[in-house]
Amino acid sequence: MATTRMVASTGWRYHKHGQPGKVLQYEKFRLPFDRTSGQVVVRMLAAPVHKQDKNLIEGHYGHIKPLQYPAVGGVEGVGLIEEVGSRTQLGVKEGDLVWVNNPRVGTWASHIVTDANNVDVVPNRADVDIEYLSCMSVFHTAWHLIHSMTPLQPGDVVLQAGASSSVAQLCMSYARSRGAKLYLTLQGGRTEHVQLMGRFKMQGAFVIVPYSYARTNYMRRLLSDVPQPKLFLNHTCGPFANNLVKLLGDNGVCVTYGSTSSKPLQVPNLDLINRNISFKGFFLPRWNETHSRESRMRVHQNVVENMTLSQGHALFRAQRYKMDTDSIFAFSNAWDAPLSSRKAVLRMVGEYGEWRRPRLELSHYTMGRAVWEDLLQQLWESTGASDTPQSMKYYTPFNDLYSEFQDAQQSKEMGHREVFFKRPNAPRNNVAEQPM
Fold first, then answer.
1. What is the pLDDT of residues 239-271, one digit of tens each?
2. Is 2 helix (H, G, I), strand (E, B) or coil?
3. What domains does the chain contain, in order, with CATH numbers?
4. pLDDT tens across 291-300, in order?
5. Strand partners, 207
């Protein structure tokens, strides 16, 4: 048998840094594999599309650079071991289901050849979905944000910016398991606003408010009967995060793990001097570099048990795309859709690429019921039979707007639309046709 094998692969590669639409190319290529080395051949099953992937392709992902050029896109994924080198020190064997833990190794390909240290064996169980295993970094990040930054006790208040992200959806479940109360900020204007609110409530969110509501006195009134917020998970930065930092209690902790707004976080001097608020950052690749493999595998065990059907509760929404035909739609959903709340996952078409049947959840029925009730409410309002437009409850937490807002400028800043107030309850007769 020859000691060198050329592995045929197909995937998305780039030969230089730049905008993904210009440098990414779907190519067929071959990878050399030395059977006497410590490498492994992995047949990929699924790989998610993160915003970090775009930063890596553009060359803006910190100190993380691809191992070689041309480089394959993707920072993580899950696949099956197809062949193992003879000098492999780890206990991996052919047929193992593994997760690619190194963001320098591209995963948007049908086959990859990498060192055995860059893969972790994950359980191939019927009660664990493939898309969850392919996004292990999301689970790891959410786990560390809730369990490693500051000790949380039952009843503690946690602030979270960017509720629609996958990490935020997992933080809801982890915070609920710790007994903490999670206050979320969600950007309005979504077509599935009420569905998201219903789902986040079931996942463990305590309060969900729009971004504009967080900077008003009503937000402080909402926090007046609970303990002072102890932890703020910052995913957006920019002015939205600045307003939430002011709501933190004394000796609070602000953890920044993303910057979706691409704007800096501005901190008042008062928060640093008088209130002693501490600021931290979390970057999972850096944590993996500074910790042992045993530490990572312990977190593996915890997050896998939390994503199982029997014992787990940590879930997020994923949408599957075929890599050979639907990748463009996956990239657009992940990078160009600011209001998207589903994680795009590429499916590698092939013998091992067939997915298990998606499990049914109780939330499916609840979401369908919420959609039906929303349609009935819109129909009820369009006929003019409703005196108070109930659809405003999806834009503000108040029931009676006139009793709470007396200032028109403040009402405009909160995002209220006057079309609901000025719409008549019933058709009016034309004034010119009325009898004299």
1. 777 777 877 888 888 888 877 777 777 777 777
2. coil
3. 4-135+316-347 (3.90.180.10), 140-285 (3.40.50.720), 362-422 (no CATH)
4. 888 888 888 8
5. 183
